């Protein structure tokens, strides 16, 4: 009878430990999702802000560089 009680006690402690670990993981996951929502929200809010000409030139140069790299990949040329 004592061995059976020991087994039940160990199993119950393991179940409680698993529950605590899963609750902590779920809380962390929800926190990570909230951070990503905030990042997406701040990116959408910045879309209406006026940008300077220098920022536009930098973005255009970046896009041109990306296009050049994609074209070289499409042509099977190593950079």
The class by helix and strand makeup works out as mainly alpha
> Could you spell the SSE succession in H and E letters?
HH
Portion in strands: under 5%
Kindly provide the radius of gyration, computed on alpha-carbon positions and rounded to a whole number of angstroms. 27 Å
> How many strand elements?
0
Question: How many angstroms separate the termini?
Answer: 73 Å
Q: Give the biggest beta sheet.
A: none
**Number of self-contained structural domains:** 2
Quick structural gist:
By secondary structure, the chain is mainly α. It has helices at 2-45, 53-74.
Give your account of this protein's structure:
By secondary structure, the chain is an all-alpha fold. The chain has two domains: 1-47; 49-79. The chain contains two helices and no strands. The protein has helices spanning 2-45, 53-74. The longest helix has 44 residues, at 2-45. It is elongated, with a radius of gyration of 27 Å. The N and C termini lie far apart (73 Å). The mean pLDDT is 87.
């Amino acid at each position: 009878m004592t061995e059976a009680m020991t087994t039940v006690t160990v199993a119950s402690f393991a179940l409680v430990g698993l529950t605590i670990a899963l609750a902590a993981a779920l809380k962390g996951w929800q926190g990570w999702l909230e951070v990503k929502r905030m990042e997406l929200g701040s990116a959408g809010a910045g879309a209406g802000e006026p940008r300077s000409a220098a920022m536009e030139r930098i973005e255009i140069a970046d896009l041109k560089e990306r296009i050049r790299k994609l074209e070289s990949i499409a042509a099977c040329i190593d950079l």
